[in-house]
């Protein structure tokens, strides 16, 4: 494995220049350049410092394990203890370091999700079938089949199916 090219890829994914990475790690830009071209090798302590700035650690950096790409329908995990008429399945389970949580939410006619309080992150939904009313800080918004919605989690919110048919929503939360 080429250490330098892997570090460069992580740096670019974070949007850092060599100078910015060097400043954040208290290193010189020339050292970062030489490191990325595999002309020098860092000490373990220096590599840990660089990886911390790049948002990872030694274990993940040196892992050859391929990250899971495909999540099969039969691998979905149901969520239990929900209000009557609400079914939720987690689409991606057992994924380390994920930054979003994707679910399929099904609401029977008249059913609604539990009210959620303030939290970090954002929420996005795409209405696959039916329609839903999204309540955000007491104000109602209607989303119909094919519509999508987006809001910040720093509000009181929940969804309700006002229709006569089941509503199905792809719901994604950043975490």
TrEMBL record:
CDD domains, sorted: cupin_XRE_C, HTH_XRE
Checking SUPFAM superfamilies in the record gives: lambda repressor-like DNA-binding domains (SSF47413), RmlC-like cupins (SSF51182)
Family annotation (PROSITE patterns): HTH_CROC1
Give the matching InterPro entries: Cro/C1-type_HTH, Cupin_2, Lambda_DNA-bd_dom_sf, RmlC-like_jellyroll, RmlC_Cupin_sf, TransReg_Diox_bact_type
Which molecular function GO terms apply here?
DNA binding; DNA-binding transcription factor activity
Q: Which UniProt keywords apply?
A: DNA-binding
Provide the HTH cro/C1-type domain boundaries: 7-61
Pfam family of the protein (one): Cupin_2
A GO cellular component entry from the record: cytosol
Protein name, UniProt field: Transcriptional regulator
